[in-house]
Amino acid sequence: MKNLRWILPALLIAIAAPGCILTSGQILIDFDLGTIDVTSSTGLVAEQIDLNTNDDYEEHKDKLKNIVDFAVLGTINNTGGTDLSPEVWITADLTNYTTDTEVKANGIKLWGGILVPAGTSAAVNWDTSAGLFTTAGKAMILAQATPPGDGNFTLYVLGASGTYQFNVTNGVLALVIDAGV
Amino acid sequence: MKRTFTLAVLALALIAGSAQAQSVGIGVQPYGGLSFPIIQDDTGSGAVYGLRVPVKVIPMLTFEPYYLTSDLGEGEVEIGGITYERQGFNHTGFGLNAMLGSVGGTGVHFYPFVGIGKHKLERDDYPEIKETAYNFGLGLGIGATPKISVEVRGELNMVVTDDTSRKFANATVGLNYSLMP
User: Fold this and answer.
1) Which of A17, A141, B59, B76 is the most buried (most CB within 10 A)?
2) Cα-only R_g, chain A
């Protein structure tokens, strides 16, 4: 019986030793993208993201271990005359391109896979959005979010091909970070 | 892990069988309750239920194989006045708890416990988490008869994910039936 009294504290110490296993959480950080008007493949809008401007990110970035869930949220309104396959592309730095040719030459695809027929709207919810991210895009955000990354990147919303015209209302980028608290 | 678990159960049965003392006891305990995620913005609380098999090896030590399943509710966040929901996890797990004291019997009894198991967290469009889990908690047993008792427990369940963890506070009530003595 003498040994039994050491079991609980020994197990607690063993588990606490690796660092923030006990003192960690999954915290949502979100960025308001507002309304994004895309007039054509040469009329893109750069959405520059500086993670450092987010209080929750600032509080936890030193103990950030992973980003475990991603979502691009909002309503996509296809105001053009053809069906739209919207995509979100990302560049690793703060950039200001206006054409999809420039974006595709310098960035990577982050998100895409839904179809918005001409003249209709599609509300993108969290569950749907989470499954449409590319592995490479998620890796780029994680690299920018964790040192030596500077927390900066730029998002572009564009059509997968052809001519397009659309807008995104109530746009949000949501990230769930796995971090010490 | 399943093999280890099976071997552990067999070992407990052998110990119980070889001891043949009046102190050895085996019970079966269905239980249910609520599971609350701790610092997890992307999942909600939900029902938890399962089965425990407490095996009293010596008077002050009880081992208990367990199985749990929990259907967690949606995580809800409000961003820019709009509420977004993320599908909750389906949480399942099995393992072994060790408690100081005995489960079941007449009267009122308290017992702290620790445990280890293999747990799985699943939801759509999210990488499956299948990792080691640790349990810590305190139980209160109230026995009206030698065979039947009500077991109330508060438990911290921690599923380790690399350097961090997903943690749940579980509050459960179980009905323990003593198979032997």
Assistant:
1) A141
2) 20
